[in-house]
User: What shape does this take?
Amino acid sequence: MNGWIKLHRCLMDKPIWFESTPEQKTIFITLLMMANHQGKEWEWQGEKYTADPGQFITSLDSIVKNCGKGITIQNVRTALKRFEKYGFLTNQSTNKSRLITIVNWGIYQSLDAEANKQPTKQLTSNQQAINKELTPNKKERKQESKNEINKEHIPSQIENLRVRYSENQLKVIDDYLAIIVHTRTSGKISDSVILKMYETWDKHPAICVEYGLKTHAENPALHSKKENYTLGIIRNTSAEEAASKLNANQYSNVTPFRKKDSLFTQSEESKRRQAASAATVTDEKWQETLNELEEFPF
Assistant: This one.
């Protein structure tokens, strides 16, 4: 693949960049490089299709391969959903392939082609207009940032990050969150903090997240610890070690008060024996009294 793409500095001011993980940033740039610079014919759903500039037909495996080492299919799925929510792209998929369209590709990438056809004065005017559109002022950036982290958006972001976990792993996560809430004096954890937890966990294998959270949840001595302590467990456990310990059921629940119940049972048995012994003594004394009465008949 030949040629190059433009990457505008104003991207650094946008939430789609500064709130993305390193993996998502890699996928973001890879998608730009995979997009067609010029129109191209493809076969789409059994019919001939002309892909416009900024469009391309691909697959999850192909995106992972182009991204290189360290990117998984789950990373790509999560990134595509997130980028689509931000309006960066549209994504149409079938069982075998998907058509991705980079929204506003022409604004960001096709300026040179138009510039060659226009006088310098007109080019300058267009360049200023585009620069104004690409470079928001401080007030616009602040408002855009507030809109992106609006509470209405956070639940959907959390749901997107929960996609990679199994049903059992989601139960572990929910149990953990129910415990960690008690580390707050208010007894509540904001959705934005929970979202941050999910984004941090997304950087680690799901099996390690499950192990770390389950270790914390099933050890009462750790219930006063906050999420940073749990993150240390996740970071310092390999996927192989986490799978081995989870499979060995080393962290299964223990029936409480077993020893106390046993002591209680022994105590009851001791009382029963003492009562029986006392009854025996009483019977013996009564028999002695009867014998004495027989010696002195009326």
